[in-house]
Amino acid sequence: xxxxxxxxxxxxxxxxxxxxxxxxxxxxxxxxxxxxxxxxxxxxxxxxxxxxxxxxxxxxxxxxxxxxxxxxxxxxxxxxxxxxxxxxxxxxxxxxxxxxxxxxxxxxxxxxxxxxxxxxxxxxxxxxxxxxxxxxxxxxxxxxxxxxxxxxxxxxxxxxxxxxxxxxxxxxxxxxxxxxx
Length: 181
Prior knowledge:
Blueprint: H1 2-14, E1 36-43, E2 50-56, E3 65-71, E4 85-88, E5 101-107, E6 110-111, E7 117-118, E8 121-134, E9 138-153, E10 159-161, E11 167-180
Parallel strand pairs: 1-11
Antiparallel strand pairs: 1-2, 2-3, 3-5, 4-8, 5-8, 6-7, 8-9, 9-10, 9-11
């Protein structure tokens, strides 16, 4: 009888079969991360230019993706295209409807038979620094001390933090890729 009580107690302590245990889909920290398969693309022109960059954070069959979106003529880039410099990821950068330096983490990229990609969770940076070194023919940047919170995305691009307590962090990652037109 004691063995059954211990087994049940262990299940309770470890959270096994506990419906309150949340699967956040990402590690609590990526630490010093390496950018796998980095890419960057430029769209628009002049002050309406937008630069997208992404990189794999792991080499699994369903990788987590770091995405950086720089939106010209918005926020810190008001009246001008994205530019090099150091950018704080707090404040208005923590909401997709107001950010001009938008840093996201997309968990578990899955491709269906038609080749369309979906993610199992979206995280938005809530703090950290993005240093952009080059935006000419190459995208070159470093992300440091970044923290992320899991968000629900609305059809109007609103990003609402979830109540599940899921967060993650990246101590540092460097990204460099040709900047495709």
